[in-house]
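Ticket 4471: requesting a sanity check on a complex prediction with DAU. Repro inputs:
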Amino acid sequence: MTTYLITGGSGFIGSNFIRYLLNKDPDSTVINLDKLTYAGNQENLRDIENDSRYHFVYGDICDESVVNEIFVTQKPDIVINFAAESHVDRSIGKPDDFIKTDVFGVFVLLEASKKYGVDFFIQISTDEVYGSIDKGYFQETDQLMPSSPYSATKAGGERLAFSYFVTYNLPVIITRASNNFGPYQYPEKLIPLFITNALENKFLPLYGDGKNVRDWLFVEDHCEAILYLIRKGTIGETYNIGSGNEMQNIEITNLILEYLKKPSSLIKPVKDRLGHDRRYALDCTKLHSLGWRSAVNFNKGMRTTIEWYKSNEEWWEKIKSGEFLDFYKSHYKLSYTS
Ligand code: NAD
Ligand code: DAU
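Returned structure tokens:
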């Protein structure tokens, strides 16, 4: 019986991970600590909320008393820290909460893990900590050159985690995954924003020339890789997690419009993101040498994702008519509806 403390489990990747874990490992117990920010949504785990192995704790990873209470009462064996402010555009407008959650929050979790002891502390970092690369692929040993307040705070958080391994021997593993996509992703991110806008016949606001490149990883592959690293990874090490599915934003946009049989006139070129990273690309040799490779083909993952958004309008319509709308009106400063 393993007890997992999953933070940020009500967000996109965290909720997919909890569902995946409970399916794969019937003997696991999950404590989900989540602050339910705009991105946290209890609907994401409605199907398992009555599972006796799942426990939700409403709270902030920056709150030492809540975190310590979980360690004292639940004695987690494994901590996986997904909790973060995760959207680059929001970090450009208002970095405050990024600094709190993505750096100080990690510190609070590390301190509690050091004090009470854990078997693993997995810090979910991101490929964005390397910054942009025009040609070639980033290796884990490359220098970190984060270029947005989001990626800078993620770099701070993961380096702090590493320091707890070196200084206090805390069993830390750091993961740096590429862009995830799949069901339950908050519709502020490229793929769900464009799918849902297209379904609503609204503009798809494409930044700059639309030729920025990301490596797209289906969320279930990411979940599998994290569990794999708990079994096969080495403590103190950092692992890139990518799929090799490099795509320009305009290619993704066209693919979504074609699939949904919508006109390309919905594409609206808008002002570029400040400090917009041109390309992310990972060398995943280190993870591949442990025997793991992403399994989900990009087109299949996209079909699954688009069909999920088509069948779950209620989920995203509720989100898009709430806090999201205010953010987008001020963010794009253009008429949001076509
Ligand atoms: P998300 O924004 O969908 O979810 C974040 C979750 O964290 C939400 O449930 C939110 O309520 C919770 N949270 C935020 N601040 C908190 C706090 N102070 N205390 C407790 N809970 C808090 O994010 P996501 O896309 O699921 O990303 C999860 C993690 O994976 C993040 O650490 C992110 O940096 C990392 N990551 C994301 C991607 C991606 O493509 N989405 C890729 C690589 C790494
Ligand atoms: O690479 C991993 C990272 O991927 C994660 O660490 C982040 O949490 C996650 O948000 C994501 O960051 P990106 O900035 O790459 O993702 P986003 O979906 O915001 O944007 C993807 C690309 O699409 C990027 O080049 C910007 C562009 N874009 C995005 C939006 C929201 C647009 O052209 N228009 C848009 O409206």
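Notes from triage: The pocket of nicotinamide-adenine-dinucleotide (ligand 1) is lined by residues 7-8, 10-14, 33-37, 39-40, 60-62, 82-86, 101, 105, 124, 126, 154, 177, 179-180, 186 (CB under 6 Å). Leaving this open until the requester confirms.
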